[in-house]
Specification:
Radius of gyration of chain B: 36 Å
Helix content of chain A: 55-70%
Low-confidence stretches of chain B: 3-8
Structural class of chain B: mainly alpha
Radius of gyration of chain A: 18 Å
Largest interface: A-B, 46 and 30 residues
Oligomer: heterodimer
CATH superfamily of the largest domain in chain A: RNA polymerase sigma factor, region 2, helix turn helix motif
Number of helices of chain A: 9
Largest sheet of chain B: none
Helix content of chain B: over 70%
Low-confidence stretches of chain A: 95-117
Number of strands of chain A: 0
Number of strands of chain B: 0
Number of domains of chain B: 2
Chain lengths: 186, 127
């Protein structure tokens, strides 16, 4: 776990230092919100609501965090649980198909340098292809590649066996290979 | 770091490597805070330390009030009560009155010590 997180957590637990907790939120909000946006298929408002629930639960349960994993990984686990609870609650009223419009998939890409058209097309195709994966496959791919977690860490976040995560990753890559076959060099 | 699948499953066409490269390069862009952290801070529950301190102050106040009432109102009343109690108990039990008196005094002292200890503990918690 990185030293900055360790110091901030210690301050929150010892003195209920809210400024320290605010700093933790600032450091990790982008990763958590990005993860939840991926899970919710680009529903930014829902993702931010779930992210808020995630951080509030983290504050309440901070004493239970003992540093077995990185703090960010622990937050991702809470975020995934909040998502699962919300999905279970709304399963009958909201279709969680993961299908999103291509523009939603790339919304929030605040780049300062305009990307080349071919790069933008690839990003859009990749986003559309990722949206066609199941939620579990998307989660596994996002955690292992976008967040750089190991398969073991991803299994901890998702609360499933290591073999299941590896299967999700393999299946996801097989599907992506098929969806993105047009981008394969001749 | 993930072991590249190509070392476990041969990937002669290089598709796997390309897909992995695409996935790593397409990682989620940074999301601006835009007031998100402020909203979290506003929504945080009441400070844990303040809640504990409030409880300790209430406990200390109750202890002091009890001691004050005892001092103001209990003086002569306690003596009269103790005398009547000892007479009745002496009529009922085999213990002589001095023995009963000592027992009663020891009990009162024990209660007083416990009360002071509780007050001291509550005082320490407010620091």
């Amino acid at each position: 776990m990185n030293r900055r997180d360790t110091e901030l957590i210690a301050r929150v637990l010892a003195n209920d230092d809210r400024h320290a907790f605010g700093e933790l939120v600032r450091l990790h909000q982008s990763a958590v919100r990005g993860f939840l946006r991926r899970l919710t298929g680009g529903h930014h408002a829902l993702a931010d609501d779930l992210a808020q629930e995630t951080f509030l639960e983290a504050y309440r349960c901070l004493a239970r965090f003992h540093g077995e994993s990185a703090f960010g990984t622990w937050l991702h686990g809470i975020a995934y649980n909040r998502f699962r609870i919300a999905r279970r609650r709304q399963r009958e009223t909201v279709e969680w198909t993961g299908e999103i419009e291509i523009r939603d998939a790339t919304a929030g890409c605040e780049t300062t340098v305009p990307a080349a058209p071919a790069t933008v097309d690839l990003q859009q195709d990749l986003a559309a292809a990722l949206a066609r994966l199941s939620t579990d496959e998307q989660s596994a791919i996002h955690l292992c590649y976008a967040e750089g977690l190991t398969h073991e860490e991803a299994a901890g976040v998702l609360g499933c066996p290591l073999g299941t995560v590896k299967t999700h990753v393999l299946r996801a890559k097989d599907k992506l290979r098929a969806y993105l076959s047009a981008w394969t060099p001749a | 770091m993930n072991t590249p699948e190509s070392t476990v499953h041969p990937d002669p066409s290089g598709d796997d490597t390309r897909i992995e490269k695409m996935l790593r390069e397409a990682s989620q862009p940074y999301i601006d805070d835009a007031g998100f952290t402020s909203r979290i801070m506003v929504a945080l529950p009441a400070s844990r330390r303040h809640a504990e301190r409030r409880r300790s102050v209430l406990l200390l106040g109750a202890v002091l009030l009890g001691c004050g009432q005892m001092a103001v109102f209990g003086g002569s009343g306690v003596v009269a009560f103790a005398a009547t109690l000892m007479e009745r108990l002496a009529a009922w039990s085999a213990l002589p009155v001095p023995g009963l008196g000592a027992t009663f005094t020891a009990g009162v002292l024990a209660c007083w010590v416990l009360t002071v200890a509780a007050g001291g503990w509550a005082w320490a918690r407010t620091r």
